[in-house]
Fold this sequence. Notes:
By secondary structure, this protein is mainly alpha-helical.
Amino acid sequence: xxxxxxxxxxxxxxxxxxxxxxxxxxxxxxxxxxxxxxxxxxxxxxxxxxxxxxxxxxxxxxxxxxxxxxxxxxxxxxxxxxxxxxxxxxxxxxxxxxxxxxxxxxxxxxxxxxxxxxxxxxxxxxxxxxxxxxxxxxxxxxxxxxxxxxx
Length: 151
C-alpha cells in the first residue's frame, strides 16, 4: 500500500491542528517574597532570569502554540522547582547561600540564561558588567571569595 504525498502531509497537519486544542496551564502563582537584589542588578535579574525562575513569567505569544507550549511550560515549571526568586522568603539561610553560589556559577559559566532562550530574548544576554555585579552581590551576601574574572 502506498501513501500519496497529499496524505503524507495531511496526517501531520491534522495532528498539529489537533494539538492546539490541548494546551498546558500557564500559571503565575502568588508571590512569596523577592530576592530584592540592589539597583541595576535587580533589573538585570528580572530581564534575564525571571521569565523562568519566578512567578512573574511573561507568557509570550509563542507559548500558545503546541507542541512548543508543552516544552516551554515544562521548562518554566522545572526552573521554578530548582530556584524561584518569587519564593525567596520561603528559603532558609543555608538554601539562600547555596542559591547565591549557584547563581554565580551558572552565570559565570555561561549556562544561564540558556542559549536557546536568547534568540527570542536577546536582551536577556548577560554583559560582563552584569556578571561583575552578580559576583560582587554574591560576595556581599555570602562573604565568600569570588573569582575576579571581569576586571
